[in-house]
Design a protein that fits this description.
Rossmann fold, binds guanosine-5'-triphosphate, seven-stranded mixed β-sheet, alpha/beta, Rab-like protein 3, GTP binding
Length: 247
């Protein structure tokens, strides 16, 4: 039997080396990745998610995970991957404070590149642009763009409370500013987001929010992306979700 499954698109952004590729693989396959390559452009993995599992509204959805390369060299070209994103996962390295503070800039970059009317920068000089970036308010962005956000901190295994205290505190961080949930994990350990754990529940709730938001936009007639109409056929007799690397 062949059924048609809708999809949503989530982009993972953050500085180079924070662990986006490992995290994407862990979420999509439930397995750790021992030797991730350097992401050039964008790498995509797909996960099959049960929306509102255990309720009468339960329905399968494909979650497309766009792992966007964090290198500065690709800053000008990666805007193309932000188009029609339905949700954002902001990724930082818990042993690297700068990677956390840079998440503000990542949000700003997504918004300015993706061209949401509500927060589209109108200025063009470097100085003006830097001003806009400094004055950028994540809360305002989230309120205006209505895009679900999740913040994930990696390399929890490298954080030793005594020898290397956490460089980032949960309170007052970007997650709080965005009203987003936050997960800290070790991407090398498949048990980090194993079914039944608190973090797996948080992740599943985030996926549900992204889907819900998209369904609402479609119902309200605001839907402009290609995702829901571009449905994928999924053969329930054993086919596995696709995996496209370095898209
Ligand atoms: N110990 C530990 N290492 C990790 C963890 N997550 C990622 N790494 C390591 O961090 C390095 C960078 O990981 P990637 O997943 O390639 O990072 P990325 O953010 O995709 O980097 P770009 O492709 O440059 O954007 C690799 O050596 C990973 O093995 C973690 O939770 N714990």
């Amino acid at each position: 039997m062949t059924i048609t499954i809708d999809k949503v698109r989530i982009i993972l952004v953050g500085d180079s080396g924070v662990g986006k590729t490992c995290l994407t693989h862990l979420i999509a396959s439930g397995e750790s990745l021992s030797r991730p390559g350097w992401t050039v452009g964008c790498s995509i993995e797909v996960k099959l998610h049960e929306y509102k599992e255990g309720t009468p509204q339960q329905k399968p959805f494909f979650i497309e995970l766009f792992d966007v390369g964090g290198s500065l060299n690709h800053k000008n070209s990666r805007g193309v991957f932000y188009a029609s994103a339905d949700g954002i996962i902001l990724v930082h390295d818990l042993t690297n404070r700068k990677s956390h503070s840079n998440l503000r800039e990542w949000l700003f970059e997504i918004l300015s590149k993706e061209g949401k009317d509500i927060y589209k920068p109108v200025t063009s000089t470097v100085a003006q642009r830097s001003d806009e970036q400094n004055n950028f308010d994540p809360e305002e962005f989230i309120g205006a763009a209505q895009m679900p956000v999740l913040v994930m901190g990696t390399k929890l295994d490298l954080v030793d409370e005594k020898r290397q205290p956490k460089t980032v505190q949960k309170a007052g961080g970007i997650a709080e500013q965005c009203g987003a949930e936050e997960i800290w994990l070790n991407c090398d350990d498949p048990r980090s987001i194993a079914a039944g754990t608190t973090d797996a529940v948080k992740l599943s709730r985030f996926f549900d929010r992204v889907i819900e938001k998209k369904l609402q936009s479609r119902d309200n007639g605001f839907y402009g992306g290609g995702s829901v109409t571009d449905r994928r056929r999924y053969n329930t007799a054993g086919a596995t979700p696709y995996n496209i690397n370095n898209y």
